[in-house]
Design brief:
With about 190 residues, the chain is an alpha/beta fold. About 35% of the residues lie in helices and about 15% in strands. A hairpin with a 6-residue loop joins strand 5 and strand 6. About 40% of the residues are buried.
Amino acid sequence: MTGLFMMLASAASAESLEPPVLIERLQAGGLVVFWRHAATDRSHDDYDLSDMDDCAGQRNLSTQGREQARQVGEGFERHSIAVEQILSSEFCRNWETAHYAFGEYDIRFELYNLPIIRDEERRDDLIEGLRRHLNTPPEDLQKNIVVVGHDLNLRHAVDVEIEEAEMAIFEPHADGPRLLGTLKPDDLGD
């Protein structure tokens, strides 16, 4: 497993394209965008996850985060970046990010926030699940897949770290997902 992880990590960090080139690659399709949820209100931690439909017990998007999500959705539209599917963690900050950007999304339980899970087998399943998502191209290769998830999951899956609202762009590949570069919401401006 360690050898596979090292291979994925090295494949993930092979390239780093500049934002205009990344946008062109996204316009062509066939990529997977891992989007760490938009900016959150850090004065409020996750404290009650017994009912995932109740956002009151979770750290949620800030006003800035909601604006970042809208900005990304508008940027995808402005640049004619086609999206086949939007997948999201069930945490409110994630699906709200997807909602404000794209309006629709599918909840995926395998994108659950890793730090909450204590069972090692379940953690391994979550990490492997994210690797599969990052390395599964869209059915329509002229479109892209967006995965709205959590930073720690991404770090464990492919050894890539990004900030809130940042997007890591991956190209599915036989050797594992290849990181092409990262985008911030401002990169999708005019």
